[in-house]
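We modelled each protein-ligand pair independently. The example shown here corresponds to the LQXTBERG entry; the chain sequence is given first, followed by the ligand as SMILES.
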Amino acid sequence: MTASRTFAVIPAAGMGKRMGASINKQYLQLAGMPIVARTLSVFENAPCIDGILLVTPADEIPYCREHVVDAYGFRKVVDIVPGGKERQNSVMNGLRALQGRVGEHDVVLIHDGVRPLISPELLQESIAVARTCDGALVAVPAKDTIKTVRDGFVIATPDRETLWQAQTPQAFRFGVIYAAHLAAEQEGFTGTDDASLIERRGGAVRIVRGDYRNIKITTPEDIILAEAFLAGNRQNGAL
Ligand SMILES: Nc1ccn([C@@H]2O[C@H](COP(=O)(O)OP(=O)(O)OP(=O)(O)O)[C@@H](O)[C@H]2O)c(=O)n1
Ligand SMILES: C[C@](O)(CO)[C@H](O)COP(=O)(O)O
């Protein structure tokens, strides 16, 4: 039997509207390197990753190839494919491009292009967990009290002990996540993460305890936070 391999799908095909920058947020500099390049470098340098499928807006593919993939020499990037309207569509385009390159039991890590502070240890742990169930979800316990709100009024306060904030990577065996994405597409279901597509089919998704520093760079203050976390890592000798 051939050993299971591991591929990463990196959706980086959003518009970055909430960042309000003049260029797509993933090309903004974070400690001297474009955000998406910083994310890719974690996967490029992780021995557990065999290949990377990058998804960007169609009209950014040549720019991304030249200024990110070639400029930083990311040799594990096997292809760059165009994204879709929603994140889910972009991920599905990446999974479709992996078809034929991977086996049913190979593991796929799906990771936001704008979460550059992911650690190699969490990649490794997610892969190990994904081999034992239908999916591995990196998440952190909610720190705030979360309210359910309708029309400006609170309608519920869910028990915080049960609430976790989903991050990425989310890891799955290829056959499992491809089938879940295909079903969601056929049934017109859109989820805000990949694990939810497995959950709705009754699949078992196990939590991998994540890191509060693994932020998704969404608004301008996130750049300041990420710079501070990186500076902290450098002081600790982690980078
Ligand atoms: N149609 C989309 C939308 C999002 N993403 C990717 O999904 C990740 C998480 O999305 P988010 O941070 O919300 O990015 P944007 O959609 O770009 O942000 P905004 O909603 O502010 O435009 C990002 O790496 C983003 O590029 C994607 O590949 N395709
Ligand atoms: C997948 C995700 O990063 C988990 O927190 C998040 O759901 C993506 O949300 P977005 O608004 O589609 O970026």
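The longest helix spans residues 220-235.
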